[in-house]
Amino acid sequence: MRGGGTRVFAFWLGLLAMVVAARASGVHPQDGPHADLRITIEDGGVRFAVGVNLAFMDVTTPVGRESIDAVAPSESAALIEAFERYAREEIVCEIDGEVVEPVIEAARLFDDPDPSMVALFPRTGMRGLIRLVAMLSYVTQTPPESVSITWPTYPDDVLGAEMEGAADGEAPSMVLEALLTAQGAQEPIRFSEAQPTFTWHADGATAASRFARIDAPPRPGEAQQISAITVAAAAFSVFSFVVSAVRSRHGRRHAMRPFFGGIAFAILGLAAVDAYTVSIKGTETPPAAITKLEAEKVFLSLHRNLYRAFDYTSDSDVYDALERSVAGDLHETVYKQIKASLRQAENDDLRGVVTAIAPGRLTISDVEAGTANGKRRPAFKAHFTWTVDGTVYHWGHAHTRTNSYEAEYEVRAVPQAGWRITGQRILSQRRIDTGGASGVSPGPQTIEELLDSLGGDDF
Tag placement on the chain: N or C end, fewer CB within 10 Å? Predict the structure, then answer.
């Protein structure tokens, strides 16, 4: 697979960090079987990072042990072997219509979790904390056009049944949340007993193609044009007439020759009025004011693109993506804030994914047409309300939050760039999903604070 040992090593270190973070603290406890599934589709095939806890393995790949709540050193190899056999025989990956056998690059059992965490797992105890992490690679010679992955087993979701008040014996099977990285973007996907197969198709899309098109700001009207030949001919014509008049006044011979020459230059100037034209500086007309309907379209596109920056997986792409939406001091500030948020999220094994954005009320005001000389650019203000569905994904499940925001924006035409957000003030933030407080809070006051809230524990 392209990237070789360096990429494998880096990914394995990431998995190791994931488990260390989970063992240490900060991960929301889920007292029951867990499967953490992370799929990456690359030019050289598919990489499948799988993490399962002992409670999950006891259902899917049971191996006899002396103690139900512990794994003796002599039992580790049998557990790993059982899971590797499960991965080879039960997990199915079909690439471009052909089943591809996995290469198990690494498999490790982490059997020494922090004992203080056991109190958070009254049902499964240490079985909920002990985890096995493996890296599966499905190698191809050409970039995949289609990928189908089938996850085979789904333990009963006992915890979910208790939370929903299901009767004994009516526990539904688990729905496994997975994280897919493909074509430069990330998205959450699901595996369930009813739909155990996920299919992906290459569509040539890139993260950039997900951005909305933004209309260019209105330009000043063109300056008046004049022909250089016409100007020169007019000058020679006037000069000829003057010479002719002076000669006639002094009674010189051939006084009319310059006069006829002037007429010839005048005819030439009229004939070349559209040739070799140049602009007359200072005659531009100011740009027409953008209509409120046009301003609404521009703003909604900018706002959508602001969130789409989270689809990218590399810092440089995030930076470039933000350039589509923000300008001035906001660009650098927001980029640094996003980078810090993502780094913190990765260290805590939490990665926020924005899954839906629903626009609410939008009011456009203070529309400025700008001036012809470019010293004042077209601009407008927007008062906007919207909701965001975000998901924190970890250890086989996801926490969804729905927040409602209200903010004021300033949007201005930036030279050589186009429409950009140049100012924002968050007026309020309200959590509206069930299971959380619903009171109004002041919320973040700037774009960077808003994005920080999306990249942190809230999303």
Answer: N
Query: Does 390 reside within a domain?
Result: yes
Tokens found for residue 399: 């926490």
DSSP 346-397: HHTT-EEEEEEEEEEEEEEEEEE---TTSSS--EEEEEEEEEEEEEEEETTE
Q: Using alpha carbons, list the distances in angstroms from residue 226 to 129, 219, 303.
A: 81, 21, 43
Dihedral over alpha carbons 436, 438, 440, 443 (to 10 degrees): 20
Q: What is the CATH number of the domain that holds 316?
A: 3.10.450.50
Between CA 367 and CA 276 the distance in angstroms is 38
Nearest to 280 by CA among 345, 213, 227, 346: 227
Question: Does residue 216 fall inside a structural domain?
Answer: no
Looking at 165-309, which runs of residues are DSSP E strands? 176-182, 185-191, 197-201, 225-227, 277-279
Tell whether 120 is covered by a domain: yes
Considering the domain architecture, whether residues 293 and 311 belong to the same structural domain is answered as yes
**Cα separation of the two ends of the chain:** 33
Number of separate domains in the chain: 3
Residue with tokens 């906001």: 330
Q: Which residue range(s) make up the domain with 175?
A: 4-205
pLDDT in tens, 101-143: 999 998 999 888 878 778 778 888 889 889 898 999 999 999 9
- Quick one: DSSP state of residue 119? G
Count of C-beta atoms within a 10 Å radius of residue 238: 13
Q: Could you please report the per-residue DSSP string of 186-216?
A: EEEEEE-SSS-EEEEE--S--GGGGSPP-PP
- What average pLDDT does the chain have? 74
Is pLDDT above 80 for 182? yes
Query: What is the pairing mode between strands 131-139 and 103-110?
Result: antiparallel
Give the closest residue to 183 by CA, choosing from 29, 313, 308, 288. Answer: 313
Token digits for 196?
């155990």
- Do 272 and 303 fall within a single domain? no
Q: How many CB atoms lie within 10 A of CB 415?
A: 9
User: How many Cβ atoms sit within 10 Å of the Cβ of residue 101?
Assistant: 9
What CA–CA distance (Å, rounded) separates 336 from 446? 13
**248 or 193, greater pLDDT:** 193
